[in-house]
Amino acid sequence: MGAGFGKFVGIFSFFLNPDCHIKVNIQKSHHKTSFPSILKFSCTFALKYWLMIKRLKEKWQVSFGRLILILMTFAIGGSLTGIIGRKIMDFTGIDVWWLYYPLYIILMTLIWPAMVILISIPFGQFPFFTQYIKKMFSRFSPNRISAKSGLTAAANAGYPKKIAIFASGTGSNSQKIIDHFKHSGEVEIACILYNKPTAGVKRIAEEENIPAIFLEKKAFFESDQYLTLLKELEIDLVVLAGFLWKVPDSFIHAFPGAIINIHPALLPDYGGKGMYGSIVHEAVIRNQEAFSGITIHFVDEHYDNGDIIFQAKCPVLKDDTPETLARRIHLLEHANYPVVIETLLKQSRL
Question: Does residue 34 surpass a pLDDT of 80?
Fold first, then answer.
């Protein structure tokens, strides 16, 4: 045990102290390495690193160029942390190993966030690293409790419940939800998923430093790629905010009673496949309805069919057009959707 511990200290010292030298005995091999073996090793090595980079790119949802800048920030920030840490420890004059290394590790832990934030500024990655470090430290919060599915976790004070927003359009509802919970310590908008490359909600996510994930149609309907991602993020509630695709049954089963939607009419009227946006308002006006409104409901396997959570209505005026009616409907959506979401999370009804 003593010999093993000595080797550990020696190896650890090599990385942390440039003045520490390790004596290593290397036996020369008489085996001749062939070119095909070298080529195979090189290809395997390159493939592993390419897959690692690809996974990071997908996980952080960034371009390849931005990923390079992020990795450079990590590398330079880490190097500066080591240099500054050693300088400070040298200044202290501590040379007892059992005191030196614990203090050095603590010091590195404290310095590293400041260094990467500093280096991220000239590389243009300040928003990414502020969010990254915030999430990193939140993992060590004493009030953090693991929640693996739906809203079945207990409503413990201080626990940040996580929301995933699905959207297809401009993102006005998404913005209102983000604004509502922006300064909340109990609710976090963990990610925004969108299915149109030009969707305005993508810009909103970028401006708010929220991970934006593009949904590829084939992967969404034929694989568990995005479902696995939501589980890894420990999502508590899935919020559909103007999302025009039907949610696959696999999502319904994975998040039973934990997916909600907002519809621009008083369900069960004017719901079903193809009934969204101006199509709904045109139908309401054409049928000379006295009232229209919004419905917030749970999502099940059928279009606009889940249990109703909340409804609010507004009058339909004689001179209304789909555009003027839509404006009043949007006011109802913006005023009520965030509040209903907050109420659901606080009640932990599911």
Answer: no
**Does 263 qualify as catalytic in the annotation?**
yes
Amino acid type, 151: L
On the question of pLDDT at 15 being above 50, the answer is: no
Q: Indicate if 121 and 165 belong to the same structural domain.
A: no
User: 223: which 2 tokens?
Assistant: 């694989």
**49-58: pLDDT as tens digits:** 787 787 776 6
pTM of the model: 0.57
157: pLDDT strictly greater than 50: no
Q: Is 215 helix (H, G, I), strand (E, B) or coil?
A: coil
- Phi–psi pair at 313, nearest 5 degrees: -130, 160
Domain boundary among 90, 115, 130: 130
Domain around 194: 161-347
What is the dihedral angle through the alpha carbons of 263, 182, 132, 115, rounded to the nearest 10 degrees? 160
Q: Does residue 242 fall inside a structural domain?
A: yes
Choose the catalytic residue: 30, 31, 263, 281.
Answer: 263
Cα separation, 225 vs 221, in Å, equals: 10
pLDDT, position 52: 79
Provide the token pair at 165: 């927003």
Q: Give the Cα-Cα-Cα angle 11, 16, 22 (nearest 5 degrees).
A: 35
The percentage of residues in the chain with a pLDDT greater than 90, rounded to a whole number, is 53
308-315 and 291-298 strand pairing: antiparallel
User: Is 149 a domain residue?
Assistant: no
Q: Is residue 335 part of a domain?
A: yes
Q: How many domains does the chain have?
A: 2
> 213, 192 in Cβ contact below 8 A?
yes
The reply to whether 80 falls in a domain is: yes
Closest CA to 350 of 145, 147, 151, 146: 151
